[in-house]
Amino acid sequence: MVKLAVLGASGGIGQPLSLLLKLSPYLTELALYDIRLAKGVATDLSHINTTVKVSGYDKDDLKSALTGADLVVIPAGIPRKPGMTRDDLFKINAGIIKTLAQGVAQFAPKAMVLVISNPVNSTVPIFKQVLSDAGVFNARRLFGITTLDLVRAKTFVNGFEQYWKDLSEINVIGGHSGNTIVPILSKAASYAKLTAQQRDALIHRIQFGGDEVVKAKDGAGSATLSMAYSAYVFVERLLKAIKGETGIVEDTFIYLDSSIQGVKEVKSLISGGVEFISLPVRLSARGVEAVEFGILNELNQHEKELFNVATKELKVNIAKGITFVTGSKAKL
Ligand SMILES: NC(=O)c1ccc[n+]([C@@H]2O[C@H](COP(=O)([O-])OP(=O)(O)OC[C@H]3O[C@@H](n4cnc5c(N)ncnc54)[C@H](O)[C@@H]3O)[C@@H](O)[C@H]2O)c1
Ligand SMILES: O=C(O)C[C@H](O)C(=O)O
């Protein structure tokens, strides 16, 4: 029996993501929550003849949506319009995330939480701080979903070569906004064939892929379908790990808790220190099993430079999220 709650289920991401989750062989129950239309979306999906039971919950019924949830996936919040950065969403989305985190702390304190809402670099720290203040935070169970960056990286490399043979050697680490997104392509043999100009163009496209969609949608929002796909990929991988499959590693944004295997090494390898970061994480039934820190020893000079730029910006984004909850300025 596995219950998953989607908070923000009626939105551009929420609807296609809920559709994909309705098809999952690993789920028993799907609880859809939104401040609008969740019951309608749930009724629509409930006509699909798969075994996942779907129910919808209105604005005032967060408690029912969350009670008994093993996983909570959160795409609630406003998306970007052309000209905006993800940080411009902070003003509205920080409050939404704080409220939802308080709900999770109260009604599903043991659930694995997967945050999609932007700016991820700040919304995940907000979530962590609320859970910590409520005394229920467990670093193994909180994830920022950065899978779309990896999905984009794996897609865009094909623009440069007929066929990039070693997609599994590609990672995207750091955070989820512009310069904090650090594509790690150098482990793949095909990387050596790129000119510096091609490499820079490819990295830029991965870092700013979100802007491409925002511009193309021309005011009607940001990536929804590719994001729903990416979240589904991550959720399925986590569900497989929960079922006991071993060797599952995904790039995801987590809190660096020293009790987690590999975190001490990560901290010694990152100059200046960050508290949250996306790295390859080994998943298990308890969520984050270990951080695969070895990648940090394998960066080439160019990637090290990108990574240093990323961690500086990331620290500011993280502090902004923590400060929002604590009310006092977080240390940088
Ligand atoms: N992590 C990523 O890679 C990634 C990728 C794409 C988009 N996003 C982010 O995901 C978020 C959602 O994007 P979208 O395109 O689905 O937006 P959307 O506006 O289409 O949908 C958001 C939904 O959230 C709901 N909502 C608002 N406040 C809520 C609350 N308090 N409780 C529950 N639901 C609430 C809205 O009613 C709406 O249905 C945005 O912040 C966007 O920037 C993240
Ligand atoms: O670009 C955005 O604002 C949405 C999302 O973070 C993305 O990467 O597509």
Automatic annotation (TrEMBL):
- Positions contributing to substrate binding: R80, R86, N118, R152
Q: What is its EC number?
A: 1.1.1.37
Catalytic activity of the protein: (S)-malate + NAD(+) = oxaloacetate + NADH + H(+)
Q: Which GO terms describe its molecular function?
A: L-malate dehydrogenase (NAD+) activity
Looking up PROSITE patterns in the UniProt record yields: MDH
Set out the biological process GO terms recorded for this chain's protein: malate metabolic process; tricarboxylic acid cycle
> Which residue ranges does the record assign to the Lactate/malate dehydrogenase N-terminal domain?
2-144
Subunit structure, per the record?
A: Homodimer.
The protein's name in its UniProt record: Malate dehydrogenase
- Domain of life of the organism encoding this protein: Eukaryota
Q: Does the keyword Repressor apply?
A: no
* Residues that bind NAD(+): G8, A9, S10, G11, G12, I13, G14, D34, N93, I116, S117, N118, M227
Q: Which InterPro entries match?
A: L-lactate/malate_DH, Lactate/malate_DH_C, Lactate/malate_DH_N, Lactate_DH/Glyco_Ohase_4_C, Malate_DH_AS, Malate_DH_type1, NAD(P)-bd_dom_sf
Any one cellular component term from GO for this entry? cytosol
Task: Note one Pfam family from the annotation.
Answer: Ldh_1_N
Task: List UniProt keywords, sorted A-Z.
Answer: NAD, Oxidoreductase, Tricarboxylic acid cycle
Task: Tell me the lineage of the source organism.
Answer: Eukaryota, Fungi, Dikarya, Ascomycota, Saccharomycotina
Record family assignment = Belongs to the LDH/MDH superfamily. MDH type 1 family.
Statement: the UniProt record of this protein carries the keyword Oxidoreductase:
yes
Active-site annotation: H176 (proton acceptor)
What residue stretches are annotated with the Lactate/malate dehydrogenase C-terminal domain? 146-324
| Species for this entry | Wickerhamomyces pijperi (Yeast)
| SUPFAM superfamilies, per database record | LDH C-terminal domain-like, NAD(P)-binding Rossmann-fold domains
